[in-house]
Amino acid sequence: AIMNQTVAECGLARPGTRGVVGRVFASALLGTLVLGSAGLVWKSAKAEILPVGALAPALEFLAADGRHDRVSINGTRTVIVLYARGCEHCRAELTELDRQVARTAGSTVLLITPGNQSIPDSVAAMWPLLAHAPNVVWGHASLEALEGAFGLRVVPTILVFDSTRHLTAKYRGETKLDLLFPATCGDTCAVR
After folding, report:
1. What is the enclosing helix (H) or strand (E) of 182?
2. What's the pLDDT tens digit per position in 126-175?
3. pTM of structure
4. What separation, in Å, do the N-terminal and C-terminal C-alpha atoms of the chain show?
């Protein structure tokens, strides 16, 4: 009986064909890893746009009532929440703020979303206590303005300024209210 095997089955492939493919693949993989690592190093080495301790930047935004406003911190602690309506984590943060809106007393809270869309009426339905709190201002500004002023990279981003306009804390992602508004009213802070 005649036994046939392909050249490859015998391990006798043409010289260099498997080696070339393997080297090309390995080179492409290594190149991707090197470029990705270099990109991460470059991104992390960039100077922080708004480091803790910096003064509050000037930013104009359009308030929910249609008037042009600007971030102004006049002797009061100010918490700025940069959020996006389609962001699940932002909605969770705003829901918790709404539930415990009494904790925001004594602070000004600016809730600003990127984009040029007006604040929908559904905000009042979703977060009724925040929508009607006298110390809470809703608004929107262009994404470019928020990136330039605050270094916005992710939402929610929460910035806390003291009464002298200095940034005292910066949070990216959902943040516990105890960090934003230290409890001064015990259990009465939570609106039930």
Report:
1. none
2. 999 999 999 999 999 999 999 999 989 899 999 999 999 999 999 999 99
3. 0.71
4. 88
